[in-house]
User: Fold this.
Amino acid sequence: MSNDMYDVVQIGYGPVGQTMAALLGKAGHRVAVFERWPELFGKARAGHVDHEIMRIFQSVGAADAVEEDAARATKYEFRNAAGELLLSFDWDFDGISGWPSDYIVYQPTIETALHDAVSQLPTVEIHQGWEAVAIEPQNDHVDITLRRVGRSAVGKKVVTDEERTVSARYVIGADGANSFVRDIIGTDQHDFGFQETWLVLDLRPTMPLHFDFDNGQICDPTRPHCLFQLGKRHRRFEFCLLPGETPEQMSDPATAWALVKQYGVTPDNAELVRHAVYTFKSKLADTWMDSRLLLIGDAAHVMPPFMGQGMCSGVRDANNLAWKLDTVLRGLSDPAILESYRDERAPHVSSIINMSIEAGKISCTTDPSVAAARDEAFRTGQVPPPPPFPHLESGILATTDVNTRLRGQLAPQGRIALDGREGRFDDLLGTGWTLLISGHIVPEFSGEQQATLDRLNVRVVAVADSAINSAATDIDGYYTKYFAANAVTAVLYRPDFYIFGAADDLAAVGTLIDELGSLVPPRVQAALA
Ligand SMILES: Cc1cc2nc3c(=O)[nH]c(=O)nc-3n(C[C@H](O)[C@H](O)[C@H](O)COP(=O)(O)OP(=O)(O)OC[C@H]3O[C@@H](n4cnc5c(N)ncnc54)[C@H](O)[C@@H]3O)c2cc1C
Assistant:
């Protein structure tokens, strides 16, 4: 075994791996990240994030930089060839997480913001230009062999014979859709059966461009496509490949310019910064954890981009796994709690994969008669609305909660004033297990309940309309409205912002803590986690 023993070795440093490294590093764990390429990828794929993801970025200090280059769109629409509206998603409300509901973003900005955040963490090492080539699980740790790789002038991988071996208590595979760690785990992937190939174009306008239709899908069977802003400074077009077209044909820049010309976009007013053909797939790994090996992000699941949720789902994986791994690495509970990771995340991400596929089916129709039937079905109201966005259904969630509507939902974030400062709740108080109580009165806890609160470092925060008894002040009345609308007095939420349970009155709060103590019990295993 090598002397380099880390808490976590992470393979892959895309946006999901970056988020994970930031969360674990913020918690003080010794993390070594190994990324194949010597530099950040630097090319956009994701173009959308939602309020939950912004709160996660906020928690690692990256949200402001992401927002600086993010744009807002009020809606995301699907229109047919004649411009008739088929489906519209409202993107113009304040998300519960304390950020606007949706942003359109430029992925390289996100990666730079996350990288800047990770680079400041003293316990995280970032090794770019190292590819994982062997992973050997042992009883109480994992050995990982890395090989140094470089990049040739034409961007191809150049393999060297320089190798090193490191060891870690856990290995996280954040290594994307063709995950090596997933291969080592040896899991099958469930294929949802949807697969479509599209040309993706990113442009940087060199002068202001105007579009009558923006931010949505043109469901035109002669050439399904979409267009939207990509952050503040870029634009995205995506075009479905038609039967008989090959990726090689479509990869020619001349093809790209010919396709965007219909929108008045030409080399005279825009620069083509990227053109790539992607085959959108829809898959979910059967196993996300095998002893000390864990998968997050595209390594665990891929989906077509029609809901803009692939990276978002991976960032949720990171946020879910990070607090559980932190709890285990600190010896505060048994590794058994890690089993809830896939149990919680897989149903959530499956729902989103299905939503993405249904949205993709609307868009990807290339048969004119099928498209006509689709349009008629929308016109006559025969198409049911999309299902609501999922929340957590089971896992580390209270079961005795009388107000079951809130369990597994996202916790609110409003602005508060405390100790002479004002701002978003997390900016003032940080993140972690939080017992949020409406009003000035904090209930008495039994000795056992207090021990659970202390062990898991649960913050008890009273939020009221004034600062009596050192309560945080609810500046905008946001929390007051939230508690009243949901008819609850207290909410206990997890470090990943999902509500563990809610209490109708102060008397019920103790029951929540009792449940927390039994669902995240003190560690009993003698062996090192
Ligand atoms: C056209 C398109 C549009 C999209 N739009 C959206 C959107 O709007 N919103 C959204 O949320 N998502 C979107 N997505 C999905 C999103 O881009 C991905 O889900 C996200 O990039 C996955 O991040 P990741 O970190 O899991 O994987 P990746 O970004 O693939 O990173 C994996 C990293 O692991 C490295 N790696 C792999 N193997 C090894 C190894 N053996 N050793 C060392 N390193 C290794 C790779 O080099 C890579 O850097 C879109 C995708 C596409 C293609």
